[in-house]
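Hi support team,

I've been running sequence recovery on a batch of backbones for a student project. Most finish fine, but this one hangs at about 90% for roughly twenty minutes before it completes. I'm not sure whether the input is malformed or the queue is just slow. I've pasted the structure tokens below so you can try to reproduce it. Let me know if you need the job ID as well.

Thanks,
M.K.
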């Protein structure tokens, strides 16, 4: 049998079908289990104790959906940005070590990383000047 390009996608298609089947299967299973659980209750009445959230055996105190400051999300995004910068530095360091032997590529790869770091440093200075890292305000 000839191995065509379309037959190479059969495992991907099967994985997609399994994923879709699992998603719909769990939705249907949760609906069935929910109906069976509600069958034991008296119709029209719901128990207040059964309807509250369970938190390690303790009664929940306070509002569960507290609002966070926009500063929290800004600092989180900045952390992700600079974390990704570090992730890009590791492969660059590995490749740079092997490219040190060729002077043309050594200067090119070093210059590209310096420009990358310079752009990120300007962004860091901008965020610092705007007070993005100041938690007090």
């Amino acid at each position: 049998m000839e191995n065509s390009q379309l037959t190479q996608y059969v495992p991907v298609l099967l994985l997609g079908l399994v994923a879709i089947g699992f998603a719909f299967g769990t939705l249907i299973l949760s609906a069935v289990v929910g109906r069976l659980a509600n069958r034991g209750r008296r119709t029209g009445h719901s128990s207040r104790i059964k309807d509250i959230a369970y938190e390690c055996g303790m009664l929940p105190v306070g509002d569960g959906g507290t609002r966070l400051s926009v500063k929290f999300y800004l600092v989180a995004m900045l952390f992700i940005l600079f974390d990704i910068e570090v992730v890009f530095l590791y492969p660059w360091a590995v490749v740079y070590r092997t490219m040190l032997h060729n002077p043309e590529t050594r200067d090119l790869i070093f210059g590209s990383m310096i420009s990358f770091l310079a752009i990120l440093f300007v962004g860091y200075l901008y965020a610092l000047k705007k007070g993005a890292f100041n938690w007090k305000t």
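--
Follow-up from support: It reproduced on our side and the slowdown came from queue contention, not your input. The two ends are 70 Å apart (CA to CA). No action needed from you.
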